């Protein structure tokens, strides 16, 4: 875990960066490496990524003339396993890319992933790992979209058990 030395010389703190596949997450990562590198010398930066749970039923739409309602179709176990496997491969590849970016800048990083809703998975990881600073990239949603869709960064600011730094892309 990354630790930040306090200005008063006190104890060191764990730092976690939560990412997803967006450019905003990678901007936040480069911002951390540019601005907090000196503070991250003693231990690795923890990079976290939540994997959305796969759904057990998929809805297939028919053309308007051939069907009047949409019927959920239960996928086979093989299909579910394939979706989970592909999602896991993508997550691990994104985490590996982030780890390589850190290594290229001289920062040691550890990666962690959990399956679940991103906002609750991030807050749960913060609590389980005793994180002292959570860093997120702001997705750039406008006020209306944020109100309708919700915002992971807003949820974490309100519910994480530590200070949260939200990095905005200019």
UniProtKB/TrEMBL annotation:
Gene3D superfamilies: HUPs
Annotated InterPro entries: Rossmann-like_a/b/a_fold (IPR014729), Universal_stress_UspA (IPR006015), UspA (IPR006016)
Residue stretches making up the UspA domain: 13-168
Pfam families xref list: Usp
Superkingdom of this protein's organism: Eukaryota
Protein's name according to its UniProt entry: UspA domain-containing protein
